[in-house]
Each structure stands twice: as C-alpha cells, then as structure tokens.
Amino acid sequence: xxxxxxxxxxxxxxxxxxxxxxxxxxxxxxxxxxxxxxxxxxxxxxxxxxxxxxxxxxxxxxxxxxxxxxxxxxxxxxxxxxxxxxxxxxxxxxxxxxxxxxxxxxxxxxxxxxxxxxxxxxxxxxxxxxxxxxxxxxxxxxxxxxxxxxxxxxxxxxxxxxxxxxxxxxxxxxxxxxxxxxxxxxxxxxxxxxxxxxxxxxxxxxxxxxxxxxxxxxxxxxxxxxxxxxxxxxxxxxxxxxxxxxxxxxxxxxxxxxxxxxxxxxxxxxxxxxxxxxxxxxxxxxxxxxxxxxxxxxxxxxxxxxxxxxxxxxxxxxxxxxxxxxxxxxxxxxxxxxxxxxxxxxxxxxxxxxxxxxxxxxxxxxxxxxxxxxxxxxxxxxxxxxxxxxxxxxxxxxxxxxxxxxxxxxxxxxxxxxxxxxxxxxxxxxx
Length: 431
Ligand SMILES: NC(=O)c1ccc[n+]([C@@H]2O[C@H](COP(=O)([O-])OP(=O)(O)OC[C@H]3O[C@@H](n4cnc5c(N)ncnc54)[C@H](O)[C@@H]3O)[C@@H](O)[C@H]2O)c1
Known about the structure:
Layout: H1 11-21, H2 24-29, H3 34-37, E1 50-55, H4 59-71, E2 77-83, H5 87-99, E3 105-107, H6 110-116, E4 121-124, H7 128-140, E5 144-147, H8 155-168, E6 172-174, H9 182-192, E7 199-207, H10 224-227, H11 239-255, E8 261-267, E9 280-286, E10 292-298, E11 306-312, E12 315-318, E13 323-326, H12 334-343, E14 368-369, H13 378-392, H14 399-419
Parallel strand pairs: 1-2, 1-4, 2-3, 4-5, 5-6, 7-10
Antiparallel strand pairs: 7-11, 8-9, 9-10, 11-12, 12-13, 13-14
Helix pairs in contact: 4-13, 7-8, 8-14, 11-14
C-alpha cells in the first residue's frame, strides 16, 4: 500500500485498508483496528440508533461532545443527555448542542442520569478522582463506557475498574487516542514489520512553558481545587497522569510488553505557587530484555515540545514529528555529496583531535514523512471506534489490558518518585 501520497479516502477507510492489508505481526499489535475493518455489527445493527450521554462537560468533555455531534449521522448516534455538577460548564455544553440542532436533557448528578435514561453508551470526561466511581456505576448499570485517561487516581481503583469491566461484560474503552492516530498506526506498522530493526530504546518528553493554571471565575478562590484539580496531588499526579500516560501507552504498544521496573525523580523547579504536584519529572521504565523508556516532562521551557522517539538498530521513528529515519541514509546525489564533503571539512588536511577522532554530531538526514500531515483526527476515530465496539458488542483483545497497565505503571511511576526507589509491580496487580 502506498501511504506516501495523500489518500483520497476517508480516514476511516484508510484504517480499514490498513487493517485488511497489514501483516499479522502488525495486526496483532493493534487488534482494535478490526473495529474499522468489520462492517458486520453483531450486537446492534447500523440502523439501531445508539443513545449516548456525556458525563463531565468541561474542556475535554465538550470537545468529545462536539465530535459526537459531528459524527452523529454517519455513526447513527443520538446524544440524549449531558451531565456536569458545575452549572456554567453544563450550560455551555447545552448551548453547544443547541447550536448544532440537538436538544439534550441535562443532569447535575450522574446517578440521576443513569436512573432516568436508557443508554447504550456513556462518555466520561470528569477529573481523574471521579473516573472510578462513575465508570463502575455505568458498567454495573449495563452501559458501555468510554472513560478518559488516566484510568484512576490509585492503583486499587484502576484494578477495580478493570474488574468491573470484566464482570459486567460491557465495553470499557480508555481515552488513549494515539491508538487510532493514522501516523502512529503507520509508524507501528513499520516497527512491527522490522523497518527500524530491533527496538533498543524509547525516549519521550513533553515540555510546555506555562503555569497550567486555569483562571477562576470572578477570582473565586473557593473554586480553585475544582477548576485546577491537575495541580493538587490528592486529585491528580500532574504531568504523569495528564501527559506521560499517553506516551507510556505508546511504549507498551511498541514493545507489546509491560515494564518490569521504574525509577524516577520529580521536583518543583519553577512554579512555586502552592501547587503540590512537581513541575519537572524524569523517569526511566525498564521493559523485559532491558529496553528502556526514558522520559521527562516540564512546564518551564517549550523549545523541544513533545515527542516519542523509537530507536532501533536500523532506524528511528519520531511519531510527533511524523518521521521515519534509516540509520544509513540513502546516498545523496553526487553534487550534494561534494558540497557536504566540503562543508564538513573532509578535504581538510589538518586532523582535528588526532586521527582516530571523528565528530559524533546528530545525523542531519531529514528522513521521510510517515503520513501526510493533515491526515490526522485521532479523537474522532476514537469516538467512531467506540460506536463500532458497541455495535459489535465487544472490545478488541488487549485494548483494556494495555490501558490498564499504562495507568497502573503511571501511578507506580509516582511511587518511584515519592519513595525515591526502584519500583516493581506488586503481584496482586497482575491481570
Ligand atoms: N485524551 C486527551 O487528550 C485529554 C485531553 C485533556 C483532558 N483529558 C482528560 O479528560 C478529563 C477531563 O479533563 P478536562 O481538562 O476536561 O477537565 P475539566 O476540569 O475542564 O472538566 C471536567 C468536568 O467534569 C465536571 N465534573 C467533576 N466532577 C463531576 C461529577 N462527579 N459528575 C459530573 N461532572 C463532574 C467538572 O465540573 C468539569 O466540568 C481528565 O481525565 C483529563 O485527563 C484527556
């Protein structure tokens, strides 16, 4: 399949093709792709309209709601209700629905929503500490559930959510949208097909330069923890649960394995403003066979942005940059080589630093694009997949498990930082 030219097809069709034509190793690594390949709904037919509600209509919930409104016809979805316990956000989301010709019922208590509405699926985008109880209540009410990442604030709650999914037989999908990102899927196809050789290290970072604070309405400090929950350690693990968890999921996906240990450190270097989560963290996860995932995140410098780099014996993939590099770049045309030789002083007759010394600068070869830049709408594909999973009545093999171990190891990363020691996984969290 030629993935270099901009596809005429929809993203959904592209994923379908990827699923149909992919090697077995690749398909084993991304079993959720079959959701796009299988057009035969098992549980509900395409003509059955799915009733969906959104719980938590803040920043992310409103984005997911907007996506659901966008795909409601193609996915045959009806958004029946929204719920938020903060009136301004509930009203704003209701206005978004009205603007899109959609009348929804509004609830400020999700329990009442579950009692009153007959739902096929629910989308949860509340703060981290609210995920577990709401998810478990939805699953035990027999509703297929999509919950934003990370799964929960504590490892025990992560495990409870997984157990509730298993015993309910209902879908639990966690918001790791990179799984549905065509760039990541194409990169993963190349990795699984051996194009970068043996994966020997994974490096990732997420750097921002802002205080991560949201303004308080009317400067009302009573709302501080409710609005800025990300900054308080009892409510969030900050950079780990908000950012790293996405990138750690990629590492689990690349290796197809679960880490064996993590070490880490975290400190508050810059934003000394009452927050109780670190503004700088660095962690190293070790996977079986010794492959490491080396990570850092900060909020006081954004020069390097964010990236996940997969380093192999024959090549490298940078997912965010959308690039693939071979270790041995293809030869440049003759004239370019001559210019390079002159620029890099190959013809200089005075050796620098002795005869055995060669400069080990970064390779400047620009590599090739994995996928046309604008071919990218992972959150929408993720919502389409959720509707497909509901229709098929099942979630693909390994998808929840990968999310489970990602959330669990994110939280074990916090333990490594807090306890200043190497952490392995307690046996009772194995599934
Ligand atoms: N996948 C992604 O890329 C991505 C991006 C941003 C946020 N997120 C995740 O989405 C979730 C929400 O993040 P956000 O930035 O939208 O936060 P937010 O604070 O903007 O929104 C959360 C909303 O949930 C509401 N809420 C809190 N408790 C509730 C309850 N018990 N019942 C109903 N509503 C309740 C709040 O009032 C608020 O409106 C988090 O888990 C976050 O990690 C994911």
